Amino acid sequence: MSHAPTTKLAAGQPFPELVVTRPDGEPQRLGQPRPETGTDWHLVLVYRGRHCPLCTRYLNQLEGFREELKEIGVDIIAVSADSKQQLLDHRSTLEVSFPLACGLTQEQMEALGLYVSLPRSDQETDHNFAEPGLFVVNEQGNLHVVDISNNPFVRPELRTLVNGLRWIRDPDNHYPIRGTRQWPESTLIYS
After folding, report:
1. Other residues' Cβ atoms within 10 Å of the Cβ of residue 191
2. How many CA atoms within 13 Å lie on the side-chain side of 120?
3. Cα–Cα dist 134/147, whole Å
4. Which InterPro entries match (predicted)?
5. What does the domain layout of the chain look like in residue ranges?
6. Which of 1, 81, 139, 148 sees the fewest Cβ atoms within 10 Å?
7. Is 136 helix (H, G, I), strand (E, B) or coil?
8. 132 near 155, Cβ under 8 Å?
9. 52 vs 84: CA distance, rounded Å
10. For the chain, how big is the Rg over CA atoms in Å?
11. What is the pLDDT of residue 50?
């Protein structure tokens, strides 16, 4: 079995310019909050799709934090590789008011450094899909927080995430983007 190489996004780097489609057919740029929200950060949640009950539960849980995130200046969008019709069908089981988008392409999944899975059967879905990813893009358009998983069982706990974002956004904390330190090869210790 061969594995496709993946390139993970680095914390602090510019978030890639990716455009997806909302159910109304309007384009939406990922990583760019909607002007009408008055926010300057964007939480981009990539979910597996309609076929995943864990994604449905996570999206519905995220709705419970929508107002709190808005208060600290963070807008939300959730996106999957589902088709428009699959997204519309999925909305009947979702209780969310934040924007949803569809049509995430293989190329976009790779640009985000996501793990990609093949459907196990036609009953699961009819296309390759991204495993979960969560990206928080700051006001400069840089990746401030990143979480990528290779399965639906491992995702950030939402209360902890929101508390952490509140801490980061507090100007009194001067909290930098973490994980940007690159060690010179000569200082690495191998066992």
Report:
1. 2
2. 3
3. 5
4. AhpC/TSA (IPR000866), Thioredoxin-like_sf (IPR036249), Thioredoxin_domain (IPR013766)
5. 19-187
6. 1
7. strand
8. yes
9. 16
10. 17
11. 86
For the 19-187 domain, the top CATH level (class) is alpha beta
Query: Contact 158/61 with Cβ under 8 angstroms?
Result: yes
Give the predicted TM-score (pTM) of the model. 0.88
Contacts of 175 (CB under 8 A, 6+ apart): 167, 168
Distance set, CA 107 to CA 19, 51, 81, 114, 128 (Å): 12, 21, 11, 10, 11
DSSP-derived 3-state class of residue 39: coil
CA distances, 80 to each of 9, 12, 61, 190 (Å) = 18, 24, 17, 39
Helix (H), strand (E) counts: the chain: 5, 9
